[in-house]
Write a structure and sequence with these properties.
Blueprint: E1 10-13, H1 22-30, E2 34-37, H2 56-63, H3 80-92, H4 102-115, H5 118-126, H6 128-137
Parallel strand pairs: 1-2
Helix pairs in contact: 3-4
């Protein structure tokens, strides 16, 4: 998706911090991205019996036959989009810029998005094996990412 510069029609989120912020909400609204919020997915509970065995995120992913990797819950080290949102937000609000309209803000986001070089996104993607290795080496703790 990011490599090709396409904007998704919808984002399924378990309400993690990377999707629960004003910047993301504005970008989603102006880009007509539907936000689908579910109850949190906890990888450590994957398959475990819980007082409430129904988990809407897990059920949705299973219904779409999407395999889920087991990784530490809430690991920003494994969430590549956080790096992209950080760069985009920094660029859009550089020098403390404030916008007078949604249209002006939307134009700024599109302009800054177009400046993100595909090689940056490719490098992020290629960093995944090393990110996973570091998370495993650090038993789910902090990494250099």
């Amino acid at each position: 998706m990011l490599k090709e510069g396409r904007i998704p029609k919808a984002v399924l989120t378990d309400q993690g911090l990377e999707f629960a912020n004003a910047t993301f909400e504005k970008i989603a609204k102006m880009s007509n991205i539907q936000l689908i919020r579910t109850k949190g997915y906890h990888s450590r509970m994957n398959g475990a019996e819980t007082p409430n065995p129904y988990n809407s995120t897990r059920a949705f992913l299973a219904s779409k036959k999407i395999k889920v990797l087991d990784w530490p819950a809430c690991s920003p080290d494994l969430n590549l989009i956080e790096s992209v949102w950080g760069i985009l937000a920094s660029s859009v609000y550089k020098t403390g810029k404030q916008y007078n309209s949604i249209s002006e803000f939307k134009d700024a986001v599109k302009t800054e998005w177009s400046k993100i070089h595909p090689s940056y996104l490719e490098n992020l993607s290629h960093s995944m094996p090393n990110r996973i290795f570091q998370v495993i080496q650090n038993n789910g703790g902090f990494t250099s990412y």
